[in-house]
Each structure stands twice: as structure tokens, then as C-alpha cells.
Design goal:
406 residues, mainly alpha, 11 helices, single chain, two-stranded antiparallel ribbon, 2 strands
């Protein structure tokens, strides 16, 4: 007799394990893994040292701009400034996102706990919610996103070292070039100092990448969970009025559906309150960053190694903004799908009380749930086209200024 293999249930924590691990590499604990959790002292030290080092890298880059501009004519260093600015902008976005996560970690803990509470627990529920397919697609996006950012950061971090070794093999002279232009109050090219500073800059760049990557992965996890809940609730409403169920059972189930809908609405509002400012900063700064990176990637005087770095940078910048807008658009569509699910049920055969419940759901679902960029605009695919349009306008202006200066 052939035994059927028991289906393995999907756990909610499987969706957040990757961003949680990534944050852990810089010591940041985004939420409490259990109620009595206390952050270890070593993690706190590691987090603050990573944060302060990262913050100094931004300040050092700004000081480098200041002294370079003070000692040179702007026309002479215009190309250098436009090459360095995207890294500073990216790091600034990262600091904003990391600060947002740290400041709101207790609220994020409540969101995680609530999502885990309403997550489907039984095999039948998980089949209805399609959790395995959702987990698989979520993992694919996370792996691709993480891989692209790892390639980006290590291309920037290791390219100067590789070119220095190539130059040493050809000429016998090792040029001590650092990955990023940061001001130091001492000569950073001496042997021991150079090694320490090179590690320090790599550490700051890695923390910068983690701040953007892990925060966006968390954002994607939360939206994926909410969308999964909305889709399942829409199906549930469409088939809630099957003839086999008694009227009392149907009314009880519709009340439970309304309670779940209210829970999802509260979670969306909580996420909106946490994320809206960081999304606004992300969109505003990303449009400028995409413009500058595109300018470098299309400039014919840029060397191949720099061109390759900025092409990778441009792809990652576009992908990062697109993912935010895509998830925001998904939330809008799936939250509105509830109205169709409710309307598809055989509400016209039910009693007035049931019809009143259905009407309440339809009216609320027709007002889509969404996240905003600082309360100014809805996060959706339209936002992505607006960002590209703004970036292209900046790009056109920048090229005009550069070639007129030439």
C-alpha cells in the first residue's frame, strides 16, 4: 500500500526570514522574534557602529564635495561631481530607511504578529490562500533582488582593487585607489591606513546596500501577505452563499469576513503611517539618482570600467523603484477586488440583513487601500512613470548644461 506524503505546511516566518537575516548582518533587529526578546548587547554595538560608520561616509562625501568645489572651478569637476553624487544619494536613501525601521521596530513587531495571527494555519486554509505558490514567487523576487544588489555593491567595492592589481601586473606600481571619494583629516593612502580605510568604506557601502535592500524586501513581504489575504477573502465572499449553508451560518461567516476586512484595513493604515515619509524621500531622491547615473552611463568620455559600474547601478535603481511601485499597485488592485467578490455572491437571494453586510463591504472596497509617498501621491505603476519622466527631464537639463559648458 502506497502511503501518501503529508503536505508540509508553510510558516509565516518563512516570508520574512531573508530580510530579517540581511538586517542581522549589520546588527539591526527589525522586529522582536518572540514576546520576551531582548536585543543582545553585541548586536546593539554592531548596529550603532554600522550606522555611525555609514553616516560618516555620507558626511565625508559631502565634505569632499565642499573642499573639491572650494579648490577648483565647478566646470573642471562637473563630471566628477555627477559621478560621485549617485553614491551619496543612494546612501542617504539607505540612512532614511534604516532610521525608519529602527524608530518603528515596535510597530513593525505588531504588524508581523498580526499578520502571523491571521496567516492560514491548516492545510485546507493554505490551499485556499495558495500560500506555496505565493512563497515560491516571493522567494524568486527576493533572490533576484538580493543578487542584483550584491553584484552592484561588490562591483563598486572591488573594481578599484582589481584595476590596481592589473596596473601593478603591467607597470609594477600599485596605485592605492579607494572605492569612494570621502574626505579624511589625514593621508589615507599610506599602507596600513589604506587597508583600514578600504575596509571601512566597504563596510559602509555594504550597510548602505542592506539598508535599502532589506527594507524594500520587508515592504514586499508585507504587501504580499496583505494581497494574499485580500484575494482569499474575495474568493470567500464569492462562494459564501452556497445553498448547503444555513442562513445563520452565512450571516456568521459574513460577519467574520467583515472583521477580517477591518483588520486588513488597519494593517494598511499602519503601514502607510510607517512607510509614507521614507517612500517620498525614496521617490524624490531616486529620480535625481537615475538622472545622474543615466548621464554617466551615456557619457562617451567615461571609461569602460566606470561605464560598467553605472550600467549596473542604473539597472538596480530602476528595479528598486519599480518594485516599490509594483507592490503598491498590487495592493490597490487586490483591495478593490473585494467589491467584485462580494457582488459575485448570490446576495439577491438572501435576507435584508445579509444584503446590508454585502453593501457595506462593496462600498468600503470601492475605495482602494493604498500607500502614499508622503501623502502626496499614491504608490502605483503611475508613480513609476512619473519618476521616469522627472528623471528624464533632469537628464536632458544636465546634458544641456554639460555640453554647453564644454
Amino acid at each position: 500500500m502506497i502511503k501518501q506524503e503529508k503536505s508540509v505546511l508553510v510558516a509565516f516566518r518563512e516570508f520574512v526570514v531573508i530580510p530579517y537575516f540581511l538586517f542581522g548582518t549589520i546588527g539591526l533587529v527589525p522586529f522582536d522574534p518572540h514576546p520576551d526578546y531582548v536585543i543582545p548587547l553585541l548586536k546593539i554595538i554592531w548596529w550603532w557602529s554600522s550606522y555611525i560608520n555609514h553616516f560618516y561616509c555620507i558626511v565625508g562625501e559631502l565634505l569632499y564635495y565642499y573642499f573639491a568645489w572650494r579648490d577648483n572651478i565647478l566646470e573642471d569637476i562637473f563630471l566628477e561631481f555627477t559621478a560621485l553624487a549617485p553614491c551619496t544619494i543612494f546612501s542617504t536613501i539607505s540612512v532614511i530607511k534604516m532610521s525608519m525601521i529602527w524608530h518603528n521596530r515596535h510597530r513593525i513587531t505588531r504588524i508581523v504578529n498580526k499578520l502571523e495571527e491571521i496567516f492560514p494555519k491548516t492545510e485546507d486554509e493554505q490551499a485556499e490562500f495558495n500560500t506555496k505558490k505565493t512563497r515560491r514567487s516571493t522567494y524568486l523576487i527576493m533572490v533576484y533582488f538580493s543578487a542584483s544588489y550584491m553584484v552592484l555593491i561588490w562591483v563598486f567595492n572591488l573594481m578599484p582593487l582589481i584595476t590596481s592589481f592589473i596596473s601593478y601586473a603591467e607597470t609594477g606600481i600599485f596605485h592605492r585607489v579607494l572605492p569612494y571619494s570621502i574626505w579624511y583629516p589625514f593621508n589615507e593612502t599610506k599602507r596600513i591606513r589604506y587597508i583600514i580605510i578600504y575596509i571601512q568604506q566597504n563596510w559602509g557601502a555594504f550597510a548602505s546596500m542592506i539598508g535599502v535592500l532589506a527594507t524594500d524586501l520587508f515592504f514586499g513581504c508585507f504587501i504580499t501577505q496583505l494581497s494574499m489575504q485580500f484575494k482569499a477573502l474575495s474568493k470567500h465572499l464569492a462562494f459564501i452563499t452556497t445553498p448547503r449553508r444555513t442562513r445563520r451560518m452565512r450571516n456568521l461567516r459574513i460577519k467574520n469576513a467583515i472583521e477580517r476586512h477591518n483588520t486588513l484595513i488597519d494593517l494598511c493604515f499602519e503601514m502607510e503611517d510607517i512607510y509614507n515619509f521614507s517612500i517620498l524621500c525614496n521617490f524624490v531622491l531616486s529620480s535625481l539618482m537615475i538622472c545622474l547615473v543615466g548621464f554617466q552611463a551615456t557619457n562617451p568620455v567615461v571609461h569602460f570600467d566606470m561605464w560598467f559600474k553605472y550600467v549596473v547601478f542604473l539597472i538596480c535603481a530602476l528595479w528598486q523603484v519599480f518594485c516599490l511601485c509594483y507592490y503598491g499597485d498590487t495592493l490597490v488592485e487586490d483591495s478593490q477586488s473585494l467589491s467584485w467578490g462580494a457582488f459575485s455572491s448570490q446576495w439577491y437571494r438572501e435576507d435584508p440583513q445579509y444584503q446590508k453586510y454585502i453593501l457595506m463591504i462593496i462600498m468600503r472596497a470601492q475605495k482602494p487601500l493604498s500607500l502614499t509617498a508622503g501623502k502626496f501621491s499614491m504608490v502605483s505603476l503611475r508613480s513609476f512613470t512619473a519618476i521616469l519622466s522627472t528623471a528624464f527631464s533632469y537628464f536632458t537639463l544636465l546634458r544641456t548644461l554639460y555640453f554647453e559648458t564644454d
